[in-house]
Write a structure and sequence with these properties.
Two copies of one chain form a homodimer. By secondary structure, the first copy, chain A, is an alpha/beta fold. Chain A contains 14 helices and twelve strands. In chain A, β8, α12 and β9 form a beta-alpha-beta unit. In chain A, α1 packs across α3. Chain B binds a DNA duplex through α2 and α4.
Chain lengths: 345, 345
DNA sequence: CTGTTAGCGCATTCAA
DNA sequence: TTGAATGCGCTAACAG
């Protein structure tokens, strides 16, 4: 509870000017060794640590990244945030965190203003994009004084985006089921207005060889909202309209949990009667019965990549206006377990 | 990418002093209505927003709370962080986030220094306490210039603690199993060096009426490490050493998932042959087969309570030294599902 | 009601 | 190798 010690206190005790202390603290070369060690000792004794706020004011940068996060109860979100924190720490940046739990566009401005007025050097925006909303963040970004990296969104011109290749993941999942002898591979999608959900749907559709809005595709599609309950309901719907469905690509693992439940109630054995591949590779996936094959997002690369991009922009501000920046794609990985591999056949 | 507009820019255009602009921005009363509206318009046109860094420097406070978080992949951790963010936002505080993913005491000082040099007004410390480590944070806290609230730790004199009543939760869980006719209620604990795990163990022991380190207690105890795999292994061990075990209180839901798996392999039907109560009430709990009875931590109150405490301390700094602050206990709640209730008996 | 002065804590620039 | 002056953007305290 002591009063905070400033650079002047150290200077006074050391009998030098504040500038000399500053030089020592910042490891500048031009200080006599004797002076340096003497000051270092005093710094330690007094437990002096520089006021970063003051330093930021003069340097015009805070070494802080603003992060706009989304629902940490989603596995993808919290692993991404964890990766962001880790990478930022390594690169010497602190994180100013704001969470948004519902995708209400009216919150964009206050959140942005709050972070910007706190002088963050850059921003990472992790909110999923809903197709039926304006893509405001993309427009706002352009005339902001700091770089913004968008995560898991469609890249519009001028955006800096780090993105999971959802489409590829869905294709791999679907292909895997087909290769394991399943003939009628359905899909349980996420909310239809989520861009990521649509990408996964498109990947499935392409791999199945269905044309856009074909009748076949429709018969093998049911929509969920990411929750286990919706996954359960979706399987009932799917089996009802296409009783010969023998496999399903479920757009996230939470819904797959619901699918397991529905399969149990319908008397469908996994993987013999119904093959399942999920998406996310949540920790529980390996512990379902049978263990769930799933697509791992490699969130670590997503979060780390976003930090890397934003830091690069912070350090080379001119680049951003000069050249278009290609989106960094992160490739998901198929983790094969028992829910998608039958011995017979 | 424009240069940032300062209070002086606004003042110049408005033809007033910076001070008057400051008054308008901060809603001070003594400004003529005409001047106020005129300045407000200019503020809007220029998209001026005050530099909070500068304001912080002069006011000696940042309206920022430092949060030291732990593994967001744990359900409890991420719900607590979510609650902290929400409450802090409501009270006008931003969050500077640091995550620690392994409980290595050497990290305490750097993390603390980083946050303190960034002039946070207060700290929330959510790392679990391991009994075999020094309780350093508790000592450090005392002579810090800002208040620190500790979450889910044993309260030592001088600490400000918000804590889940783990012991009570374990008692309620155990009592519930006994009341449902189970006779031999075992426990699968968390890591033995975690204080919270021990509290849950003690709650179970008390409710079972066992004395400390009694032979009976030992025969009904197996240790896990919070992971599903360890839960699975622990059930095998428990059944092996006490084959008549007919129910088990599992110290978290992740391990309970492993217990389900083990029960399946052992041919034990839940809840008929084996009653189960978990702890955490993760979202998947209701979707296991059968749905898992569990203890809800009410993380929302834990996180919110911590923010409330720290903000109170920030606003009344003198109080902290004058009076001992009693820990705030959050009572967990039993959520009854099918895994612990048999129809027969 | 409004402006002036001063200074938060520090680092940059220049001079010594 | 060191120190003095200056100012980052803002607001508290005072004066008018």
């Amino acid at each position: 509870m002591e009063k905070k010690v400033t650079i002047k206190d150290v200077a006074k005790i050391a009998g030098v000017s504040a500038q000399t202390v500053s030089r020592v603290v910042n490891n500048h070369p031009d200080v006599a060794d004797e002076t340096r060690t003497r000051i270092q000792k005093i710094v330690k004794d007094l437990e002096y640590s520089p006021n970063i706020i003051a330093r930021s004011l003069i340097q015009g940068k805070t070494n802080t990244i603003g992060v706009v996060g989304f629902r940490l109860d989603y596995f993808g979100s919290n692993t991404i945030l964890t990766a962001i924190e880790r990478k930022a720490g390594k690169l010497g940046f602190s994180l100013l965190l704001t969470l948004i739990n519902d995708l209400d566009e009216s919150k964009i401005d206050p959140v942005l203003n709050q972070l910007l007025s706190r002088q963050v050097d850059g921003l990472i925006w992790t909110l999923p994009w809903l197709k039926d909303t304006q893509n405001r963040i993309s427009e706002i970004t352009k005339n902001l004084s700091v770089p913004v990296v968008l995560l898991n969104r469609k890249a519009f011109p001028g955006d800096i985006v780090v993105c999971l290749d959802n489409r590829h993941g869905a294709r791999v999942a679907t292909k895997h089921l087909l290769e394991n002898g399943y003939k009628h591979v359905g899909i349980i999608t996420g909310p239809t207005n989520w861009w990521e959900a649509e990408e996964r749907y498109e990947g499935w559709r392409e791999e199945m060889g269905f044309s856009i809005s074909s009748r076949q595709a429709e018969m093998l599609t049911a929509h969920g909202d990411w929750t286990p309950q919706s996954g359960e309901d979706a399987l009932y719907e799917l089996i009802k309209k296409s009783p010969d469905t023998d496999a399903v690509f479920v757009s996230n693992d939470q819904m797959a949990i619901g699918v397991y439940r529905a399969a149990g109630k319908l008397g469908l054995r996994i993987p013999d009667d119904l093959g399942i591949v999920g998406f996310d590779n949540i920790p529980e996936a390996g512990f379902l019965s049978p263990p769930l094959t799933s697509i791992d997002q490699h969130s670590r690369y997503l979060g780390g990549g976003a930090v890397q991009q934003v830091v690069e922009q912070i350090k080379n501000p001119q680049k951003r206006n000069d050249e278009e920046i290609a989106p960094s794609w992160v490739k998901p990985e198929l983790i094969i377990r028992e829910s998608s591999t039958r011995n017979n056949d």
